[in-house]
Specification:
The chain has 272 residues and is mainly β. It is 0% helix and 42% strand. It is found in: Membrane.
Length: 272
């Protein structure tokens, strides 16, 4: 009778995740089969050296051993992943094409010299404001201008894929914040404001009708309108400088206001 035993190279302990199964065959031969007991992972342990020994049952038993080298073959069982699940880059509005927004980099733990990772934007880019290099993962701007006043934030979903069989993939979210640029001139809510001023109005005094109370003088109807000003650029609604340029003729007094935003580059608008 012959028995078999399985050892790891260099010691005499039973080897996991393998077992040796012996079966009797004709003419005294026995068949020994090495089987797995658990899943193998190439990325954890790529190979095994085993020693298989056979021993008879004589009074003085004899044995012989053989070494078995097992190489674990690769299977595409690891999903390619970026370092972070969500990224928050920013880019100025009205940027020219090919401005860098974000460099994505993914890792796949599968050991395969032919492995390649590719990238693709699958949502959040309906107007094509952004492009991604399918090989390098570099996200850049395109010829489509970004406008913070129209859309201050773009949420992109990027698909990261390997070329294994079966093909595995993951998604990464990129939340692009559009930085403000002073690209809008301040605007009045009306094209023209009409103000009626008494002929004898005091210089540098507020023009109110009750300034003339008790004087016996009845001024003409006084219509005072405060020009309303707005600027869609961030933080510029209350940061404008008013300048007046009076131009006098024989019939009336025309005042032209110039409003300049307090941000570089400056943009201005005029009102008469």
């Amino acid at each position: 009778m012959i028995t078999g035993v399985l050892f790891a190279q260099g010691n005499h302990r039973a080897v996991q995740p393998f077992q040796l199964v012996s079966r009797a065959r004709n003419r005294g031969w026995k068949k020994g089969t090495i089987r797995t007991l658990a899943s193998l992972d190439l990325e954890t342990k790529p190979n095994y050296w085993l020693t298989v020994c056979a021993q008879d049952q004589a009074v003085v038993p004899l044995h012989s051993c053989v070494q078995v080298y097992i190489e674990v073959q690769n299977e595409n069982d690891n999903v390619p992943l970026t370092e972070d699940a969500v990224y928050y880059p920013s880019v100025p509005e009205s940027s020219p094409p090919n401005v860098k927004v974000l460099q994505l980099a993914a890792e796949d733990r599968d050991i395969d010299p032919l492995q390649q990772i590719s990238y693709r934007i699958i949502s959040g880019n309906p107007e094509g404001n952004f492009a991604i290099n399918s090989t390098s993962g570099l996200i850049t701007t395109t010829a489509r201008k970004l406008d913070r006043e129209n859309q201050p934030e773009h949420i992109l979903e990027v698909l990261v894929m390997d070329n294994g069989e079966p093909q595995l993939s993951s998604t990464t979210r990129v939340v692009v914040q559009v930085e403000d640029v002073n690209d809008h001139a301040p605007e009045f809510d009306q094209k023209m404001y009409k103000v009626q001023i008494p002929a004898n109005a005091k210089i540098d005094q507020p023009l109110f009708q009750n300034d003339y109370a008790g004087s016996g003088y009845e001024p003409p109807e006084l219509e005072l309108t405060e020009p309303m000003l707005s600027d869609p650029d961030v933080g510029l609604d209350d940061a404008a400088t008013w300048e007046s340029f009076p131009e006098k003729n024989f019939n009336d007094l025309q005042v032209i206001f110039r409003v300049t935003a307090q941000k570089s580059p400056q943009e201005g608008s005029t009102l008469s």
